[in-house]
Amino acid sequence: MTLPPGYQLATPSQVCKLKRSLYDLKQASRQWNQEFTSQILSYGFTQSHHDNCLFVMSTSDVFLVLIVYVDDILLTGSSEEAMENVKRFLDEQFTIKDLSTAKYFLGLEIARSLQGMFIT
């Protein structure tokens, strides 16, 4: 990695300390996942003990499920308003892109019809 333009080291043996993770570093994905988990837990979700990528929020009137894989997120639930609030929160924290209704996720096709929802 090169130093920022105009920055001079006093001696050749000096190094700069990186204060945050960079995109392609091997620890970047883990640090992003830790930050994402921290934020989504602070919102009120509970992380599954069986799968760290599964988060659930259950109240008397709302049930939400959030699945995260690397930087892909699938959100579903019983309340459209609650899902919009979660998306707004995530956008404030991370700047997300909403791809609307899911048709594919992790190689699975998600189809909806009058008979229900089918995952193949």
TrEMBL record:
SUPFAM superfamilies: DNA/RNA polymerases. It comes from the Eukaryota. It holds the Pfam family RVT_2. InterPro entries: DNA/RNA_pol_sf (IPR043502), RVT_2 (IPR013103). Keywords: Membrane, Receptor, Transmembrane. The keyword Membrane applies. Residues 2-117 form the Reverse transcriptase Ty1/copia-type domain. This is Transmembrane signal receptor.
